Amino acid sequence: MSTEQQSSENKKTTSVLGFINRFAVAHTVAYFIAGLIFSALMNYQEIFATSAFSHMRPFEHPLVILGPTLQLFRGAFLALAFLPFRHVIIESKRGWVYVFVALWILMNVGADSAEPGKIEGLIYADYSLAEHLFSFPEFTCSTLLSAWLFHTWERNPKDKRLSIPLIGAVVVILAFAVLGLLFMSPM
After folding, report:
1. What CA–CA distance (Å, rounded) separates 135 from 73?
2. Interatomic CA distance for residues 69 and 178, integer angstroms
3. CA dist., res. 161 & res. 70, Å (int)
4. Which of 12, 32, 74, 92 is buried most, with the most CB atoms less than 10 Å from its CB?
Protein backbone atom coordinates (compact mmCIF):
# COMPACT_ATOMS: atom_id res chain seq x y z
CA MET A 1 0.00 0.00 0.00
CA SER A 2 1.38 3.37 -0.97
CA THR A 3 1.80 6.20 1.52
CA GLU A 4 -0.97 8.14 -0.20
CA GLN A 5 -3.41 5.21 0.05
CA GLN A 6 -2.43 4.66 3.68
CA SER A 7 -3.02 8.35 4.45
CA SER A 8 -6.42 8.20 2.75
CA GLU A 9 -7.33 5.07 4.73
CA ASN A 10 -6.27 6.73 8.01
CA LYS A 11 -8.43 9.78 7.20
CA LYS A 12 -11.45 7.52 6.55
CA THR A 13 -10.93 5.69 9.85
CA THR A 14 -10.49 8.99 11.69
CA SER A 15 -13.56 10.35 9.94
CA VAL A 16 -15.66 7.33 10.97
CA LEU A 17 -14.41 7.41 14.57
CA GLY A 18 -14.98 11.16 14.71
CA PHE A 19 -18.52 10.70 13.38
CA ILE A 20 -19.28 8.06 16.02
CA ASN A 21 -17.69 10.08 18.84
CA ARG A 22 -19.45 13.32 17.89
CA PHE A 23 -22.79 11.52 17.63
CA ALA A 24 -22.31 9.82 21.02
CA VAL A 25 -21.28 13.07 22.71
CA ALA A 26 -24.13 15.11 21.17
CA HIS A 27 -26.64 12.40 22.11
CA THR A 28 -25.35 12.20 25.70
CA VAL A 29 -25.33 15.96 26.26
CA ALA A 30 -28.84 16.38 24.79
CA TYR A 31 -30.14 13.43 26.83
CA PHE A 32 -28.69 14.89 30.03
CA ILE A 33 -29.96 18.44 29.43
CA ALA A 34 -33.47 17.30 28.48
CA GLY A 35 -33.51 14.86 31.39
CA LEU A 36 -32.55 17.54 33.89
CA ILE A 37 -35.09 20.04 32.60
CA PHE A 38 -38.02 17.65 32.29
CA SER A 39 -37.21 15.80 35.49
CA ALA A 40 -37.53 19.09 37.36
CA LEU A 41 -40.52 20.44 35.38
CA MET A 42 -42.56 17.25 35.49
CA ASN A 43 -41.37 15.90 38.85
CA TYR A 44 -40.24 12.51 37.54
CA GLN A 45 -39.33 11.26 40.99
CA GLU A 46 -42.98 11.53 42.08
CA ILE A 47 -44.44 10.33 38.77
CA PHE A 48 -42.13 7.31 38.59
CA ALA A 49 -43.41 6.26 42.02
CA THR A 50 -46.93 5.79 40.57
CA SER A 51 -48.24 2.39 39.51
CA ALA A 52 -48.03 3.25 35.80
CA PHE A 53 -44.26 3.55 36.16
CA SER A 54 -43.74 0.88 38.83
CA HIS A 55 -41.24 -0.85 36.54
CA MET A 56 -38.87 2.12 36.82
CA ARG A 57 -35.92 1.99 39.20
CA PRO A 58 -35.77 4.55 42.00
CA PHE A 59 -33.76 7.72 41.38
CA GLU A 60 -31.12 6.58 43.90
CA HIS A 61 -30.40 3.32 42.06
CA PRO A 62 -26.78 3.14 40.80
CA LEU A 63 -27.86 2.44 37.21
CA VAL A 64 -30.15 5.48 37.24
CA ILE A 65 -27.26 7.59 38.50
CA LEU A 66 -25.04 6.15 35.74
CA GLY A 67 -27.80 6.44 33.12
CA PRO A 68 -26.67 9.66 31.44
CA THR A 69 -23.07 8.42 31.32
CA LEU A 70 -24.13 5.13 29.74
CA GLN A 71 -25.81 7.13 26.96
CA LEU A 72 -22.33 7.44 25.42
CA PHE A 73 -22.63 3.76 24.46
CA ARG A 74 -26.18 4.14 23.20
CA GLY A 75 -25.10 7.15 21.15
CA ALA A 76 -22.22 5.18 19.63
CA PHE A 77 -24.59 2.37 18.60
CA LEU A 78 -27.04 4.88 17.13
CA ALA A 79 -24.17 6.48 15.21
CA LEU A 80 -23.42 3.11 13.61
CA ALA A 81 -26.96 3.05 12.21
CA PHE A 82 -26.47 6.50 10.65
CA LEU A 83 -22.94 5.82 9.39
CA PRO A 84 -24.02 4.64 5.90
CA PHE A 85 -25.95 7.90 5.48
CA ARG A 86 -23.33 10.27 6.86
CA HIS A 87 -22.64 12.01 3.55
CA VAL A 88 -26.34 12.77 3.02
CA ILE A 89 -26.58 14.07 6.59
CA ILE A 90 -23.43 16.19 6.47
CA GLU A 91 -23.83 17.61 2.99
CA SER A 92 -27.42 18.77 3.47
CA LYS A 93 -28.25 21.98 5.30
CA ARG A 94 -31.29 20.12 6.60
CA GLY A 95 -29.33 17.03 7.64
CA TRP A 96 -30.27 17.66 11.25
CA VAL A 97 -33.94 17.30 10.26
CA TYR A 98 -33.23 13.89 8.70
CA VAL A 99 -31.45 12.77 11.86
CA PHE A 100 -34.21 14.17 14.09
CA VAL A 101 -37.05 12.52 12.18
CA ALA A 102 -35.28 9.15 11.94
CA LEU A 103 -34.33 9.17 15.64
CA TRP A 104 -37.76 10.36 16.75
CA ILE A 105 -39.59 7.67 14.83
CA LEU A 106 -37.21 4.74 15.37
CA MET A 107 -36.08 5.39 18.94
CA ASN A 108 -39.23 6.79 20.42
CA VAL A 109 -42.54 6.20 18.75
CA GLY A 110 -41.61 3.13 16.74
CA ALA A 111 -39.48 1.42 19.38
CA ASP A 112 -40.36 -2.24 19.89
CA SER A 113 -41.39 -1.80 23.51
CA ALA A 114 -44.78 -1.76 25.23
CA GLU A 115 -43.96 1.49 27.03
CA PRO A 116 -45.92 4.75 27.24
CA GLY A 117 -45.48 6.85 24.10
CA LYS A 118 -44.61 3.89 21.89
CA ILE A 119 -46.88 2.31 19.27
CA GLU A 120 -46.43 -1.09 20.94
CA GLY A 121 -47.50 0.45 24.26
CA LEU A 122 -50.60 1.90 22.64
CA ILE A 123 -51.55 -1.51 21.22
CA TYR A 124 -50.54 -3.94 23.95
CA ALA A 125 -50.50 -2.02 27.22
CA ASP A 126 -53.25 -0.38 29.21
CA TYR A 127 -51.80 3.12 29.62
CA SER A 128 -53.99 6.20 29.62
CA LEU A 129 -53.62 8.77 26.85
CA ALA A 130 -51.99 11.12 29.39
CA GLU A 131 -49.38 8.45 30.20
CA HIS A 132 -48.67 8.03 26.48
CA LEU A 133 -48.28 11.75 25.93
CA PHE A 134 -46.16 12.18 29.08
CA SER A 135 -42.88 11.19 27.39
CA PHE A 136 -43.34 13.13 24.14
CA PRO A 137 -42.05 16.55 25.27
CA GLU A 138 -38.79 15.22 26.71
CA PHE A 139 -37.88 12.80 23.96
CA THR A 140 -38.85 15.32 21.28
CA CYS A 141 -36.63 18.03 22.83
CA SER A 142 -33.81 15.57 23.50
CA THR A 143 -33.92 14.17 19.97
CA LEU A 144 -34.18 17.62 18.40
CA LEU A 145 -31.25 18.98 20.41
CA SER A 146 -29.17 15.87 19.77
CA ALA A 147 -29.78 16.01 16.00
CA TRP A 148 -29.02 19.73 15.79
CA LEU A 149 -25.87 19.54 17.96
CA PHE A 150 -24.54 16.56 16.05
CA HIS A 151 -25.24 18.00 12.61
CA THR A 152 -23.76 21.38 13.49
CA TRP A 153 -20.65 19.79 15.01
CA GLU A 154 -20.26 17.23 12.22
CA ARG A 155 -20.31 19.96 9.59
CA ASN A 156 -17.63 21.89 11.55
CA PRO A 157 -15.65 19.20 13.39
CA LYS A 158 -12.63 21.41 14.05
CA ASP A 159 -14.67 24.30 15.48
CA LYS A 160 -13.54 24.59 19.11
CA ARG A 161 -16.56 26.77 20.00
CA LEU A 162 -18.69 23.63 19.86
CA SER A 163 -16.28 20.78 20.58
CA ILE A 164 -14.83 22.20 23.82
CA PRO A 165 -18.22 22.90 25.51
CA LEU A 166 -19.69 19.55 24.43
CA ILE A 167 -16.68 17.53 25.56
CA GLY A 168 -16.61 19.61 28.75
CA ALA A 169 -20.28 18.80 29.32
CA VAL A 170 -19.56 15.07 29.01
CA VAL A 171 -16.75 15.42 31.57
CA VAL A 172 -19.21 17.16 33.93
CA ILE A 173 -21.80 14.41 33.34
CA LEU A 174 -19.18 11.77 34.12
CA ALA A 175 -18.15 13.68 37.26
CA PHE A 176 -21.79 13.91 38.42
CA ALA A 177 -22.19 10.14 37.97
CA VAL A 178 -19.01 9.34 39.88
CA LEU A 179 -19.85 11.79 42.68
CA GLY A 180 -23.42 10.48 42.80
CA LEU A 181 -22.19 6.92 43.23
CA LEU A 182 -19.58 7.90 45.81
CA PHE A 183 -21.89 9.97 47.98
CA MET A 184 -25.25 8.25 47.57
CA SER A 185 -26.78 6.66 50.62
CA PRO A 186 -26.75 2.85 50.61
CA MET A 187 -29.94 1.29 49.26
Report:
1. 22
2. 10
3. 25
4. 32
Cα–Cα dist 38/133, whole Å: 13
What CA–CA distance (Å, rounded) separates 146 from 10? 27
Measured at the alpha carbon of residue 139, what is the angle toward residues 136 and 22, in degrees to the nearest 5? Answer: 165
Which among 71, 78, 128, 107 is positioned nearest to 118, based on CA atoms? 107
CA-wise closest residue to 27 among 178, 148, 112: 148
Transcribe 42-106 into DSSP letters: HTHHHHTTSGGGTTSPPTTSHHHHHHHHHHHHHHHHHHHHHGGGHHHHHHSTTHHHHHHHHHIII
The conformation of residue 186, written as its DSSP 8-state character, comes to P
The structure's pTM equals: 0.86
CA 126 to chain centre: 27
Cβ neighbour number for residue 132 with a 10 Å cutoff: 17
Crossing angle (nearest 10°) for helices 160-183 and 62-82: 150
CA-to-CA distance for 44 and 59, rounded, in angstroms? Answer: 9
